[in-house]
Protein: UDP-D-xylose:beta-D-glucoside alpha-1,3-D-xylosyltransferase
Amino acid sequence: MFHRRGSVKRISISKLCYVLAIGGTIFVFLQLYLDLIERKSAGYSAYRRIIRKEAISEDSEGDLLNVNDELLIETRNTIASYSKPMIPIEEVVAAIILCEADETKPYKGSISSFEQHIDRAKSLLKSIVFLSQQHIKLHVLVNSNEVIRGITSVVEFWPPQQRNKIALKFRKVSSQSTLGVEEKTRVTCVSKKLIFEKMYPEEDALIYLDTDIVFLRPIEDLWRVFKNFNDEQLFGAVTPLWRIFNDKPFTEFEKMVNFAGRGFNAGLLLLNLTRIRSQAEKWQAALQSALEVVAFNEQSLFNLMMNLNPEHFYEMDCEWNFRLGLCTNVTHRCPGLVANGVHAVHGNGGAFFKDRNVVLKILHEYWRDLDMSKSLNNVISELNAILPDAVLKTPPCDLVEGLHEMLMKHMKLLDGKLDN
Ligand SMILES: *[C@@H]1O[C@H](CO)[C@@H](O)[C@H](O)[C@H]1NC(C)=O
Ligand SMILES: *[C@@H]1O[C@H](CO)[C@@H](O)[C@H](O)[C@H]1NC(C)=O
Structure:
């Protein structure tokens, strides 16, 4: 009995080895075959897993804060070919400022709450990234870690093809006065936009953006506007300011703080930092003179500075800074709008949050809530369905014939050209 059991055991082991050898070979081939099918169905696009690593460190003065955004790309296949590689022609560099009210300072009611900041940044960032085919480096100036976490969480869960288009560079600024002006400074954090050339010595140029802006055209088209500067120009903005369109003649003060008698809006600026640095003396002298006239208001300061050196100013197309006031008299205030369409809308004065500004509010909310995995075609049909009615509900824009078409123009031109 013992012997029989032993012989049975021997036979079954050798059979088992045999079966295992054949089975193993089949298994390996099957694996290879399945892998091939899988890769084919994935269009040979690599499986990428992105891990965000944030190293937050404060420098000795507790002033600067660097978030090193490391992207670790893991590929499952050894053949890591990306179906649609993004080849940056020229990186777009932009900057936004998100300053939370400092409770210890006066005027705290005049700036947005944390929620409004994040809310506005969502629609700005989504509209920029969604419509862009370029890599964007976005400098974000903040005065609290909470805002850094808030903004980071905005982009974190976008699909990788959208997330990979933008690199966020946070810098935490102290609430100490930048310009050596006393406590009149309303929000010292915001004043940093007057010294970008010093803050970012590594950058050649940047686009400054208020957060209450929504893009309706790729930001790289705005970056190309830098190329229109003549040799002396270093600063671009959109004129005019509407408040000058009244019958009363300008006071001397109004003349000073409104560039060329028209004024420009400082919510969207093109700054060639290389050139500002090369004109450092002139620029600093103008800033100091401006500070003697206006204690604090960056827009007035910039207007005043440009009045002192008008050769530095490049007048941008008004289509890049569409505000509601423009609707009052489009042919006079922005004649190019009808032919060129709207490039970006600006909800200045809290317009995104006011019920009567239906069209701006709807655009802001649509982009804020957008699922970034949607297609542009989808976005176009959804906006087409809501915009005409929204325009009709927004006086005085209801009188601008075809405004909804102007708002959609560049997205329609882009349709079929984006990889989204
Ligand atoms: C800014 O000015 C410098 C110096 O003129 C020039 O080389 C550079 O191309 C300009 N930057 C942009 C973005 O046009
Ligand atoms: C627009 O402004 C121009 C110049 O001030 C004026 O002549 C024209 O009548 C205005 N149009 C409307 C519709 O108000």
Observations:
- The chain has 15 helices and eleven strands.
